[in-house]
Each structure stands twice: as C-alpha cells, then as structure tokens.
Amino acid sequence: MTTPTELLTVPQVMERLQLGRTAVYDLLRTHQLPSLTLGRARRIPAHALTELIRTRLEEEAA
Fold first, then answer.
1. Which of 1, 4, 6, 48 is 20 to 30 Å from 37 at the Cα level?
2. What are the residue ranges of helices labelled H in 1-62?
C-alpha cells in the first residue's frame, strides 16, 4: 500500500519558504522545484519542497 503524497499550492509554498510569488514561480520555471498541473491548478509535492531545502542546505555547507 502506498502513502498519499501531500500536494501544496503555490501560496502554501510561498508561506513555508517565506518567499514571494515571483520567486516561487522562478523555482518552478527553472525546474529547481518540480510540480504538476491538474487542470489549471499548479501543485507541488511536499517531498519536492523538502528535497529542495535539503539540496540547498548541502550546497551552502559545501
């Protein structure tokens, strides 16, 4: 049995990262933050946000 993946909206990602809409859409446009489109709605898997943060922390530590 698989666990459901939490899908976040752009405003939720903005709140969690404390970034503006343009910055979040830049991350999406450059494929640094993967997303999927359901109809006209853009959704970001929560694990993708966690991975982005982990990767950035590793880059900063190097």
1. 1
2. 10-17, 21-29, 46-61
Of 51, 57, 42, nearest in space to 12 by CA: 42
Tokens 């898997």 belong to 45
Q: Which amino acid is at 11?
A: P
State the amino acid at position 62 in one-letter form. Answer: A
**Going from the N-terminus, what domains does the chain have, and what CATH number goes with each?**
7-61 (1.10.1660)
How far is the C-alpha of 47 from the C-alpha of 41, rounded, in Å? 18
Torsion of CA 10, 17, 34, 45, to 10 degrees: -70
Residue 8: how many CB atoms within 10 A of its CB? 18
